[in-house]
Amino acid sequence: MTTYDVRVGGKSDIGKVRKENQDALLISQPDDDDVLEHKGVLVVLADGMGGLEDGREASQLAVDTIKRFYYSSKRDPRTGLEKAVQQANTAIYMKSTQGPESRQMGSTVTAFAVIGDQAVVAQVGDSRAYRIRDGKIQQITRDHSLVRELLDRGEIDRDSAQYAFHRNILTRGLGLREEVVVDTYELIGLHPGDTFLLSSDGLHELVSEAELCASVDRTDVDLDEACQSLVDLACERGAPDNSTVALVQVNLIEH
Asked: What is the span of the domain harbouring residue 123?
């Protein structure tokens, strides 16, 4: 019999400039075997929007809501994760309208669940998910940002002043409107040693894809130490934003 061993590591850092850490990271590895079989290991990374009010509260509300609704959902993992992210959007939006004065709150989110030999991803904003396999890295998600749209249209390049000027403008986020479109991805037939990396923009804007890939260049790497090394690298480069990263590695166990 073959079973799947899932190892997870994570690290979040305030950086060198921000006064608080508005990123939130949740790692859930259920003890219940039935829950683990049907819903798997869940990792959620959210980045509160620093230009809005209560970014920290928004990101924490996002990860807590997604965990609660995902594990209570009777739907298949992909649909369940999508609906959980939509519930998080509703929770943040409703929170922002409470009280005598409304306040705009927002967050990005990338939610990742691995169930046996498959994984699902749900994403809103510019937090990312990557897959690292056989020494190569591939971005799974697609940033919901003005920069991404301008790059796709060939109107700017990464070295231009316009890239730096527009890079923090999101075209989609949690809590900004009553409803949100959630991008979902389903990955079937995972390979032994597949490693998935989730990151906030405070990390992947400063650390290259090659450096992300090199962080797990061997299967016995300590994932928490690898995450710490990536955050340290961002800090060495000034870390103007909070930086958060999680690593999820899938291996097979033969019985």
From this structure: 18-196
